[in-house]
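Researcher: We're teaching a course module on how sequence relates to structure. For the next exercise, students receive a sequence and then see the predicted structure as tokens, so they can try to spot secondary structure elements on their own. Here is the exercise chain.
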Amino acid sequence: LGQGLADETALKAGYFAGHERFHRAESRTSRSAAESAVMARVLNAMGAGAVASVIQAALSAVGEPIVNRVLVKRMKVMDAVRDVSPAMMLDFFKTTLTTNFLKFPFFEAINAFCSMLPISGSVRGFVTGFVFTTATLPVTNYRYRKSMQLEVNWGNIYEAYFPTVIRDIAYGIVRNYTTIWMMALNPAWTVQSPTLLFIVVILGCLGSAPFNEWRGFLLQSKGQELTFSEFFKPANFVRSTSLGALKQGLALAVGYWCAPPAKAFVMSMIAAVKGA
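Model: And here is the predicted structure for the students to work with:
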């Protein structure tokens, strides 16, 4: 009888130990699958950001020197267009392409990662904006100064940090909340739908525009500064904000629209090379 009880106890212990090992293995498998899903989503966002980088680089090479002159120098659009030559645009394209490959995929990766965390839209926007700006402001200011044909040195790579970080935090918060609201209005959209991105990026730019104007005010060249009342005029605000928002929204939306066929093309090229 004692031996029977001992065998039964051993069987039960073995069963529970095996059951526990099974659940641990199942938990590891679920965790591994979740981590893979997170990485896949982040990498897809980075890929879309990279495609958008090329598209936005081309748009920025033409539009950014004009937009920056409208924003900082408060020039009228046609005056800014006349102030920028095709040679300047072509030369600036090298800068926009290089810096976009750093900035666009990085922001989209941060935004995609934060979107999967159990945090509110405002906290998510704060984290995205703060991390992105702190890491990439030297790149942003280098690009700005190149577009305006100004000298770049270590003393100005973190110029206008405070309004820039507030601008990007505001942009992240507005973009996150408008994404939630727009998806509630149209459940067929996903966070990567080009139409949705076009709308929310523009709204994000509009929502953060006052801080972008503040940044522009601080970036004025020494000795050529406009006074506060001269700089902050409604017509100037509308011009610079609408141009910048449209350029940014168009670039990211087209980037996400082009990402799937671009990815498929690259994968087919890799398969063809391996097959050869």
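Model: If you want an answer key for the exercise: The two ends are 71 Å apart (CA to CA). The CA atoms of residues 129 and 169 lie 4 Å apart.
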